[in-house]
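Reminder to self: C-alpha coordinates first, then the designed residues, so the page reads top to bottom the way the pipeline ran.
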Protein backbone atom coordinates (compact mmCIF):
# COMPACT_ATOMS: atom_id res chain seq x y z
CA UNK A 1 0.00 0.00 0.00
CA UNK A 2 1.34 3.40 -1.01
CA UNK A 3 0.28 6.88 0.03
CA UNK A 4 1.46 9.75 -2.13
CA UNK A 5 0.98 13.20 -0.61
CA UNK A 6 1.42 16.01 -3.13
CA UNK A 7 1.44 19.81 -3.16
CA UNK A 8 2.48 19.96 0.50
CA UNK A 9 2.81 23.60 1.47
CA UNK A 10 5.71 22.72 3.78
CA UNK A 11 7.16 19.38 4.85
CA UNK A 12 8.41 19.92 8.38
CA UNK A 13 11.29 18.29 10.31
CA UNK A 14 12.98 16.69 7.31
CA UNK A 15 16.28 14.90 7.83
CA UNK A 16 18.71 13.82 5.11
CA UNK A 17 21.18 12.51 7.68
CA UNK A 18 19.08 11.46 10.68
CA UNK A 19 20.32 12.38 14.13
CA UNK A 20 19.40 10.66 17.36
CA UNK A 21 18.69 13.95 19.13
CA UNK A 22 19.35 17.67 18.87
CA UNK A 23 20.80 19.85 21.59
CA UNK A 24 21.75 23.40 22.46
CA UNK A 25 21.86 25.82 19.55
CA UNK A 26 20.95 23.02 17.09
CA UNK A 27 17.53 22.92 18.69
CA UNK A 28 16.62 26.16 16.93
CA UNK A 29 17.28 24.60 13.51
CA UNK A 30 14.44 22.94 11.68
CA UNK A 31 14.73 21.61 8.13
CA UNK A 32 11.68 21.96 5.93
CA UNK A 33 10.86 21.65 2.23
CA UNK A 34 8.33 24.02 0.72
CA UNK A 35 5.98 22.90 -2.07
CA UNK A 36 6.87 19.26 -1.67
CA UNK A 37 5.71 15.65 -1.95
CA UNK A 38 6.03 12.63 0.33
CA UNK A 39 5.74 8.96 -0.59
CA UNK A 40 4.86 6.37 2.06
CA UNK A 41 5.24 2.72 1.20
CA UNK A 42 4.73 -0.47 3.23
CA UNK A 43 4.42 1.47 6.46
CA UNK A 44 7.66 3.40 5.93
CA UNK A 45 8.74 6.77 4.60
CA UNK A 46 9.99 5.91 1.14
CA UNK A 47 11.00 9.24 -0.45
CA UNK A 48 10.23 12.94 -0.57
CA UNK A 49 11.27 16.06 -2.42
CA UNK A 50 10.23 19.27 -4.12
CA UNK A 51 7.24 19.24 -6.47
CA UNK A 52 9.22 20.95 -9.27
CA UNK A 53 11.92 18.31 -9.11
CA UNK A 54 9.75 15.23 -8.94
CA UNK A 55 11.00 12.27 -10.93
CA UNK A 56 8.41 10.91 -13.37
CA UNK A 57 9.31 7.41 -12.28
CA UNK A 58 7.74 8.17 -8.89
CA UNK A 59 4.46 9.15 -10.53
CA UNK A 60 4.58 6.19 -12.94
CA UNK A 61 5.30 3.85 -10.02
CA UNK A 62 2.06 4.72 -8.31
CA UNK A 63 -0.16 1.71 -8.85
CA UNK A 64 -3.95 1.71 -9.09
CA UNK A 65 -4.39 1.18 -5.38
CA UNK A 66 -2.03 3.98 -4.31
CA UNK A 67 -3.81 6.63 -2.31
CA UNK A 68 -3.08 10.14 -3.56
CA UNK A 69 -3.70 13.03 -1.17
CA UNK A 70 -3.58 16.63 -2.31
CA UNK A 71 -2.27 18.68 0.61
CA UNK A 72 -2.47 22.12 -1.02
CA UNK A 73 -2.24 24.80 1.67
CA UNK A 74 -1.47 22.17 4.32
CA UNK A 75 1.67 21.02 6.05
CA UNK A 76 3.00 17.58 6.95
CA UNK A 77 4.77 16.92 10.24
CA UNK A 78 6.19 13.74 11.77
CA UNK A 79 3.81 12.58 14.52
CA UNK A 80 4.48 13.88 18.00
CA UNK A 81 6.48 11.56 20.27
CA UNK A 82 5.08 11.80 23.80
CA UNK A 83 7.71 10.20 26.03
CA UNK A 84 5.99 10.44 29.42
CA UNK A 85 2.39 9.48 30.26
CA UNK A 86 0.35 7.59 32.82
CA UNK A 87 -2.59 7.12 30.49
CA UNK A 88 -3.72 3.78 31.87
CA UNK A 89 -5.83 4.78 34.88
CA UNK A 90 -9.19 3.78 36.29
CA UNK A 91 -10.97 7.11 36.72
CA UNK A 92 -10.60 10.85 36.50
CA UNK A 93 -9.98 12.76 39.77
CA UNK A 94 -11.83 16.04 39.50
CA UNK A 95 -12.66 16.01 43.23
CA UNK A 96 -9.00 16.74 43.94
CA UNK A 97 -9.08 19.38 41.28
CA UNK A 98 -11.65 21.22 43.38
CA UNK A 99 -9.43 20.77 46.48
CA UNK A 100 -6.60 22.28 44.48
CA UNK A 101 -8.72 25.24 43.46
CA UNK A 102 -9.46 25.74 47.14
CA UNK A 103 -5.75 25.90 47.86
CA UNK A 104 -4.46 22.43 48.78
CA UNK A 105 -1.10 21.48 47.29
CA UNK A 106 -0.33 18.29 45.37
CA UNK A 107 1.68 17.04 48.36
CA UNK A 108 -1.11 17.84 50.84
CA UNK A 109 -3.61 15.95 48.71
CA UNK A 110 -1.22 12.99 48.52
CA UNK A 111 -0.70 12.99 52.32
CA UNK A 112 -4.46 12.71 52.88
CA UNK A 113 -4.54 9.49 50.83
CA UNK A 114 -5.74 11.26 47.71
CA UNK A 115 -3.65 11.51 44.59
CA UNK A 116 -1.84 8.44 43.36
CA UNK A 117 -3.13 6.29 46.26
CA UNK A 118 -6.68 7.19 45.34
CA UNK A 119 -6.09 5.97 41.78
CA UNK A 120 -4.45 2.80 43.13
CA UNK A 121 -7.53 1.97 45.20
CA UNK A 122 -9.75 2.30 42.16
CA UNK A 123 -7.37 0.47 39.87
CA UNK A 124 -7.43 -2.52 42.20
CA UNK A 125 -11.16 -2.89 41.53
CA UNK A 126 -11.02 -2.31 37.78
CA UNK A 127 -10.80 -5.23 35.37
CA UNK A 128 -8.12 -5.47 32.71
CA UNK A 129 -10.80 -5.18 30.04
CA UNK A 130 -12.11 -1.93 31.51
CA UNK A 131 -8.61 -0.50 31.73
CA UNK A 132 -7.80 -1.47 28.14
CA UNK A 133 -11.04 0.00 26.90
CA UNK A 134 -10.65 3.38 28.59
CA UNK A 135 -6.99 3.64 27.63
CA UNK A 136 -7.81 2.90 23.99
CA UNK A 137 -10.22 5.84 23.99
CA UNK A 138 -7.43 8.08 25.33
CA UNK A 139 -4.99 6.73 22.75
CA UNK A 140 -7.43 7.50 19.95
CA UNK A 141 -7.90 10.98 21.36
CA UNK A 142 -4.17 11.78 21.46
CA UNK A 143 -3.71 10.30 17.98
CA UNK A 144 -6.31 12.77 16.70
CA UNK A 145 -4.12 15.56 18.09
CA UNK A 146 -1.12 14.17 16.23
CA UNK A 147 0.65 11.82 18.65
CA UNK A 148 2.10 8.74 16.97
CA UNK A 149 4.29 7.29 19.70
CA UNK A 150 3.76 7.27 23.42
CA UNK A 151 5.33 5.93 26.58
CA UNK A 152 2.93 4.60 29.22
CA UNK A 153 3.84 3.89 32.85
CA UNK A 154 2.44 1.52 35.43
CA UNK A 155 2.39 2.97 38.95
CA UNK A 156 -1.25 2.89 39.99
CA UNK A 157 -0.94 -0.72 41.13
CA UNK A 158 1.47 -0.33 44.05
CA UNK A 159 1.39 -4.03 44.85
CA UNK A 160 2.90 -6.81 42.79
CA UNK A 161 -0.35 -8.17 41.44
CA UNK A 162 -1.79 -4.83 40.38
CA UNK A 163 1.47 -3.51 38.92
CA UNK A 164 1.63 -6.65 36.76
CA UNK A 165 -2.00 -6.10 35.83
CA UNK A 166 -1.17 -2.61 34.60
CA UNK A 167 1.78 -3.85 32.59
CA UNK A 168 -0.39 -6.56 31.01
CA UNK A 169 -2.86 -3.84 30.04
CA UNK A 170 -0.07 -1.86 28.37
CA UNK A 171 1.04 -5.02 26.55
CA UNK A 172 -2.51 -5.41 25.23
CA UNK A 173 -2.50 -1.78 24.11
CA UNK A 174 0.71 -2.39 22.16
CA UNK A 175 -1.16 -5.08 20.22
CA UNK A 176 -4.43 -3.23 19.76
CA UNK A 177 -3.39 0.36 19.07
CA UNK A 178 -1.80 1.71 15.89
CA UNK A 179 0.39 4.01 18.02
CA UNK A 180 3.93 2.91 18.82
CA UNK A 181 3.99 2.28 22.58
CA UNK A 182 6.81 1.87 25.11
CA UNK A 183 6.06 0.66 28.63
CA UNK A 184 7.68 1.68 31.88
CA UNK A 185 7.48 -0.07 35.25
CA UNK A 186 6.78 2.49 37.98
CA UNK A 187 6.21 0.40 41.10
CA UNK A 188 7.89 3.19 43.10
CA UNK A 189 5.31 5.85 42.27
CA UNK A 190 3.98 6.36 45.81
CA UNK A 191 4.38 4.62 49.14
CA UNK A 192 1.19 2.66 49.99
CA UNK A 193 -0.41 3.78 53.29
CA UNK A 194 0.41 0.50 55.06
CA UNK A 195 4.16 1.04 54.49
CA UNK A 196 4.27 4.69 55.43
CA UNK A 197 6.04 3.98 58.72
CA UNK A 198 8.52 1.66 57.02
CA UNK A 199 9.10 2.86 53.50
CA UNK A 200 12.15 0.65 52.99
CA UNK A 201 9.93 -2.42 53.31
CA UNK A 202 7.97 -1.29 50.27
CA UNK A 203 11.22 -0.60 48.42
CA UNK A 204 12.26 -4.18 49.28
CA UNK A 205 9.07 -5.48 47.67
CA UNK A 206 9.71 -3.43 44.54
CA UNK A 207 13.24 -4.81 44.35
CA UNK A 208 12.79 -8.41 45.43
CA UNK A 209 9.33 -9.19 44.14
CA UNK A 210 8.20 -6.80 41.45
CA UNK A 211 11.35 -6.21 39.39
CA UNK A 212 12.21 -9.92 38.94
CA UNK A 213 8.64 -10.68 37.81
CA UNK A 214 8.46 -7.68 35.50
CA UNK A 215 11.78 -8.70 33.95
CA UNK A 216 10.89 -12.39 33.66
CA UNK A 217 7.79 -11.62 31.64
CA UNK A 218 9.60 -8.90 29.62
CA UNK A 219 6.76 -6.67 30.62
CA UNK A 220 8.55 -3.34 30.61
CA UNK A 221 10.94 -1.47 28.38
CA UNK A 222 12.06 0.92 31.14
CA UNK A 223 11.99 1.49 34.90
CA UNK A 224 10.91 4.64 36.72
CA UNK A 225 10.96 5.97 40.31
CA UNK A 226 9.18 9.08 41.62
CA UNK A 227 12.33 10.41 43.26
CA UNK A 228 11.31 13.55 45.10
CA UNK A 229 10.61 15.16 48.43
CA UNK A 230 7.82 13.25 50.22
CA UNK A 231 8.01 10.30 47.80
CA UNK A 232 11.13 8.15 47.23
CA UNK A 233 14.55 9.22 48.52
CA UNK A 234 17.83 9.19 46.67
CA UNK A 235 18.83 6.07 48.62
CA UNK A 236 15.58 4.31 47.66
CA UNK A 237 16.06 5.35 44.05
CA UNK A 238 19.68 4.21 44.03
CA UNK A 239 18.68 0.76 45.29
CA UNK A 240 15.79 0.40 42.85
CA UNK A 241 17.77 1.53 39.81
CA UNK A 242 20.64 -0.77 40.75
CA UNK A 243 18.20 -3.70 40.92
CA UNK A 244 16.63 -2.67 37.61
CA UNK A 245 20.04 -2.43 35.98
CA UNK A 246 20.78 -6.04 36.88
CA UNK A 247 17.78 -7.00 34.77
CA UNK A 248 18.68 -4.66 31.92
CA UNK A 249 15.97 -2.10 32.69
CA UNK A 250 17.15 1.38 31.75
CA UNK A 251 15.75 4.19 33.91
CA UNK A 252 13.47 7.06 32.93
CA UNK A 253 12.78 8.78 36.22
CA UNK A 254 10.61 11.47 37.79
CA UNK A 255 13.06 13.97 39.25
CA UNK A 256 13.30 17.46 40.74
CA UNK A 257 9.61 18.32 40.46
CA UNK A 258 9.22 19.33 44.08
CA UNK A 259 12.76 20.16 45.19
CA UNK A 260 16.49 19.98 44.42
CA UNK A 261 16.16 16.33 45.38
CA UNK A 262 19.29 14.90 43.77
CA UNK A 263 17.05 12.94 41.42
CA UNK A 264 18.76 14.26 38.31
CA UNK A 265 22.18 13.20 39.56
CA UNK A 266 21.06 9.71 40.55
CA UNK A 267 19.38 9.35 37.14
CA UNK A 268 22.57 10.34 35.36
CA UNK A 269 24.56 7.96 37.58
CA UNK A 270 22.48 5.07 36.22
CA UNK A 271 22.61 6.36 32.64
CA UNK A 272 18.91 7.13 32.60
CA UNK A 273 17.41 7.54 29.16
CA UNK A 274 15.56 10.55 30.53
CA UNK A 275 14.97 12.51 33.73
CA UNK A 276 11.57 14.14 33.76
CA UNK A 277 9.82 17.19 35.30
CA UNK A 278 12.95 19.21 36.32
CA UNK A 279 11.31 22.29 37.86
CA UNK A 280 14.19 22.44 40.33
CA UNK A 281 17.19 22.40 38.02
CA UNK A 282 20.22 24.48 38.98
CA UNK A 283 23.82 24.76 37.79
CA UNK A 284 24.90 21.48 39.38
CA UNK A 285 22.07 19.58 37.74
CA UNK A 286 22.83 21.16 34.35
CA UNK A 287 26.47 20.21 34.73
CA UNK A 288 25.57 16.60 35.52
CA UNK A 289 23.31 16.44 32.47
CA UNK A 290 25.91 17.97 30.14
CA UNK A 291 28.18 14.98 30.70
CA UNK A 292 25.50 12.40 30.06
CA UNK A 293 23.34 10.60 27.50
CA UNK A 294 20.22 11.45 29.48
CA UNK A 295 17.42 13.48 27.86
CA UNK A 296 16.14 16.25 30.13
CA UNK A 297 12.36 16.08 29.71
CA UNK A 298 10.04 18.86 30.74
CA UNK A 299 6.32 18.36 31.40
CA UNK A 300 4.54 21.69 30.92
CA UNK A 301 1.07 20.24 31.51
CA UNK A 302 1.84 19.24 35.10
CA UNK A 303 3.60 22.52 35.97
CA UNK A 304 0.68 24.47 34.49
CA UNK A 305 -2.05 22.38 36.09
CA UNK A 306 -0.42 22.37 39.54
CA UNK A 307 0.61 26.03 39.35
CA UNK A 308 4.27 25.24 39.93
CA UNK A 309 7.41 27.09 38.97
CA UNK A 310 8.56 26.36 35.43
CA UNK A 311 11.75 24.43 34.68
CA UNK A 312 14.57 26.72 33.49
CA UNK A 313 14.40 25.47 29.91
CA UNK A 314 16.02 28.56 28.35
CA UNK A 315 19.00 28.22 30.64
CA UNK A 316 19.24 24.50 29.91
CA UNK A 317 19.22 24.90 26.13
CA UNK A 318 21.56 27.88 26.27
CA UNK A 319 23.98 25.75 28.29
CA UNK A 320 24.02 23.26 25.40
CA UNK A 321 21.54 20.67 26.65
CA UNK A 322 18.86 18.90 24.62
CA UNK A 323 15.29 19.15 25.92
CA UNK A 324 12.22 17.01 25.22
CA UNK A 325 8.65 18.05 25.99
CA UNK A 326 6.04 15.48 27.02
CA UNK A 327 2.44 15.58 28.23
CA UNK A 328 2.57 13.57 31.50
CA UNK A 329 -1.06 12.68 30.67
CA UNK A 330 -2.47 11.46 34.03
CA UNK A 331 -5.58 12.01 36.16
CA UNK A 332 -3.87 13.92 38.97
CA UNK A 333 -1.48 16.47 37.60
CA UNK A 334 -2.03 16.67 33.84
CA UNK A 335 -5.36 15.40 32.58
CA UNK A 336 -4.59 16.08 28.92
CA UNK A 337 -2.42 14.37 26.35
CA UNK A 338 -2.74 17.12 23.76
CA UNK A 339 0.80 17.62 22.47
CA UNK A 340 -0.20 20.69 20.45
CA UNK A 341 -0.98 22.38 23.75
CA UNK A 342 2.33 21.15 25.19
CA UNK A 343 4.12 22.69 22.19
CA UNK A 344 2.34 26.00 22.77
CA UNK A 345 3.27 25.89 26.46
CA UNK A 346 6.88 25.38 25.40
CA UNK A 347 6.82 28.78 23.73
CA UNK A 348 4.50 30.65 26.06
CA UNK A 349 5.76 29.49 29.45
CA UNK A 350 9.32 28.37 28.68
CA UNK A 351 10.27 30.81 25.91
CA UNK A 352 11.19 28.10 23.46
CA UNK A 353 11.29 29.12 19.81
CA UNK A 354 8.79 27.23 17.62
CA UNK A 355 11.72 25.29 16.08
CA UNK A 356 12.98 24.31 19.55
CA UNK A 357 9.50 23.23 20.56
CA UNK A 358 9.02 21.13 17.44
CA UNK A 359 12.38 19.42 17.98
CA UNK A 360 11.44 18.83 21.63
CA UNK A 361 8.11 17.17 20.74
CA UNK A 362 9.40 15.06 17.84
CA UNK A 363 13.01 13.87 17.60
CA UNK A 364 13.98 14.52 21.23
CA UNK A 365 10.76 12.94 22.47
CA UNK A 366 11.56 9.91 20.30
CA UNK A 367 15.06 9.73 21.83
CA UNK A 368 13.56 9.85 25.33
CA UNK A 369 11.80 6.55 24.64
CA UNK A 370 14.53 4.91 22.60
CA UNK A 371 12.73 5.40 19.31
CA UNK A 372 14.68 8.06 17.47
CA UNK A 373 16.10 5.62 14.93
CA UNK A 374 12.58 4.86 13.72
CA UNK A 375 10.48 7.93 14.56
CA UNK A 376 10.63 11.66 15.27
CA UNK A 377 11.41 13.06 11.83
CA UNK A 378 10.67 12.76 8.13
CA UNK A 379 13.58 10.60 7.00
CA UNK A 380 13.81 7.78 4.46
CA UNK A 381 13.24 4.41 6.12
CA UNK A 382 11.57 5.76 9.24
CA UNK A 383 8.11 4.59 10.24
CA UNK A 384 5.34 6.35 8.29
CA UNK A 385 3.79 8.10 11.30
CA UNK A 386 2.92 11.59 10.10
CA UNK A 387 0.02 14.02 10.15
CA UNK A 388 -1.37 16.49 7.68
CA UNK A 389 -2.47 19.80 9.16
CA UNK A 390 -5.48 21.88 8.26
CA UNK A 391 -4.61 24.89 6.09
CA UNK A 392 -2.18 26.89 8.20
CA UNK A 393 -0.10 29.93 7.17
CA UNK A 394 3.26 28.96 8.73
CA UNK A 395 4.66 26.20 10.95
CA UNK A 396 5.04 28.81 13.69
CA UNK A 397 1.24 28.91 13.68
CA UNK A 398 1.30 25.44 15.26
CA UNK A 399 2.44 26.66 18.73
CA UNK A 400 0.93 30.14 18.25
CA UNK A 401 -2.66 29.09 17.72
CA UNK A 402 -3.14 27.22 20.97
CA UNK A 403 -6.15 25.25 22.14
CA UNK A 404 -7.63 24.14 18.82
CA UNK A 405 -6.81 21.04 16.81
CA UNK A 406 -4.79 21.84 13.70
CA UNK A 407 -4.30 18.17 12.75
CA UNK A 408 -6.62 17.09 9.97
CA UNK A 409 -5.36 13.71 8.75
CA UNK A 410 -3.49 11.17 10.86
CA UNK A 411 -1.34 8.53 9.20
CA UNK A 412 0.14 5.77 11.34
CA UNK A 413 2.20 2.86 10.00
CA UNK A 414 1.50 4.17 6.50
CA UNK A 415 -2.30 3.97 6.92
CA UNK A 416 -4.80 6.79 7.21
CA UNK A 417 -6.57 6.58 10.58
CA UNK A 418 -10.26 7.36 10.12
O1 LIG B 1 4.08 12.72 36.79
N1 LIG B 1 4.79 13.04 39.68
C1 LIG B 1 4.30 11.92 39.82
N2 LIG B 1 3.37 11.31 39.14
C2 LIG B 1 2.49 11.90 38.25
C3 LIG B 1 1.20 12.23 38.89
C4 LIG B 1 0.35 11.06 38.97
C5 LIG B 1 -0.96 11.30 39.68
O2 LIG B 1 -1.13 12.30 40.42
O3 LIG B 1 -1.79 10.44 39.47
C6 LIG B 1 3.16 13.04 37.55
O4 LIG B 1 2.83 14.21 37.68
FE1 LIG C 1 4.64 11.54 35.54
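Designed residues (418 positions):
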Amino acid sequence: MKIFIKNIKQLVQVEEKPKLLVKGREMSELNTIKDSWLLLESGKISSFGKMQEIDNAIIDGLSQDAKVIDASGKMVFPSWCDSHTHLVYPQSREVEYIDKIKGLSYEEIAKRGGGILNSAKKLHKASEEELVESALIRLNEIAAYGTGAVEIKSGYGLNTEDELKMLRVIRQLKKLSPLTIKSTFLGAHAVPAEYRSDQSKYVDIVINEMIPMVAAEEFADYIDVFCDRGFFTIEDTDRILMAGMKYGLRPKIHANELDYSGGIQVGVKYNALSVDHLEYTGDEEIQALLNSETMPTVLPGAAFFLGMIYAPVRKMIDAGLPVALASDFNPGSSPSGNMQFILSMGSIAYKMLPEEGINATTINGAYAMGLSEELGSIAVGKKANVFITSEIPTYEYMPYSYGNNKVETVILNGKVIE
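Residues 4 and 39 are 5 Å apart (CA to CA).
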